Amino acid sequence: MSSSQTHRTIDAIWRMESAKLIARLTRMVRDVALAEDLAQDALLIALERWPETGIPDNPGGWLMTTAKRRAIDFMRRSKLRDQKYGEIARTAPLYTEDDVDHALDGEISDDLLRLIFMTCHPVLSQDARVALTLRLLCGLTTDEIARSFLVAESTVAQRIVRAKRTLSAEKVPFEVPTGEELNQRIAAVLEVIYLMFNEGYSATSGEHWIRPLLCQEALRLGRILAEIVPTEPEVHGLVALMEIQASRLKTRVNAKGEPILLMDQNRAKWDQLLIRRGITALERSRKLGRPLGPYSLQAAISACHAQARSAAKTDWIRIAALYEALARLTPSPIVELNRAVAISMAFGPAFGLQIVDELNKEPSLKGYHLLPSVRADLLAKLGRYDEARSEFERAASMTRNTRERELLLQRAADCESGTYQ
Predict the structure, then answer these.
(1) How far is CA 146 from CA 190, 225, 339, 408, in A?
(2) Whole-model pTM?
(3) Contact by Cβ (8 Å): 385, 365
(4) Distance CA 17, CA 12 (A)
(5) CB-CB contact of 389 with 415 (8 Å)
(6) Which domain holds residue 419?
(7) Is the C-alpha dihedral spanning 249, 252, 253, 254 positive or negative?
(8) Is residue 2 part of a domain?
(9) d(C-alpha 240, C-alpha 65), whole Å
(10) pLDDT digits (tens, 9 = 90+) for 15-49
(11) How many separate domains does the chain show?
(12) Does the residue 418 lie in any domain?
């Protein structure tokens, strides 16, 4: 394996393992900023050694062992050595290298959930929670986060630094809270898990369109949370949404990793067990007797797709109505863009284009690549191929995901050749 291939592999391993590393290290040192630094140290050591020694059979275990050794070395040098050693002795038994696999499989999910509750503490603003989540749990760079939220990279970096300092200064506990404190943080925790799943379902950047392991981790955490707070409808709503969306993961890309859009997917290959579990979770949300919240409404939309035997039989009128309800509950330009797609499918592309053209005036969508992508699709369906090609090319220039860029450029080429479908 060449040096460049090794570095790409290490980058992929880091994206899969970094959240677990940081969660376990936070349990040890009780400081999320220090935990991230220690995890980064382990990554740097891997970048130095693995090109020469080869990637180990269990790279996650190697990184964990290396990071824990760094943590122990740090504490030996710390002025608070005795106090920290006492904390470790009471709360985090040291594992040998042979025990790492068992530790990863046995306790990591709980540690990740504790980390999420920690980063969702009310001492942090919503913007800080979102930035910290995408950084620690999804492995995004500050540049990627900044592009996703259309803000300056320096702004995101400052939010993350301040958030970690605040958590340390306030001595926010690494735990799942109980009682009223638990209830106060549920909405923020749901948002974090939702962000994790979405980053796995449609990656912000990189060479892969989907990151299935991130989806699986988010779904596992959602299921755990549903056991902790079974009377909260939106917990079941989010689980329902993730179950149904996850049922399509194997059909979202072909054997070459190229994206397959929803209308072109082989529905016979959708995971029926996940669909049934999702619909059951949605029913649990409804039976709790409260109006459907945003996650439950999105799950209901996903259920419409899941229950349609073919793309042609999709109940787009119901989906448009559900998006209308979602827009009233949580108005946002992105919800409105999705509603425009549903309107176009239910009543024709001209109606959807009217909504999209209005959204072109929305400042927050200026750098959002899906706006010109949706507009291009509607223009192409109206036979305005030159305009559509230009919009697809504009969308391609805005996305950071390699696979998505290739898809958009191919659709632009199809418009030029007259083969767009």
Answers:
(1) 21, 29, 25, 22
(2) 0.77
(3) no
(4) 9
(5) yes
(6) 340-421
(7) positive
(8) no
(9) 36
(10) 778 888 888 888 788 888 888 888 888 888 888 88
(11) 1
(12) yes
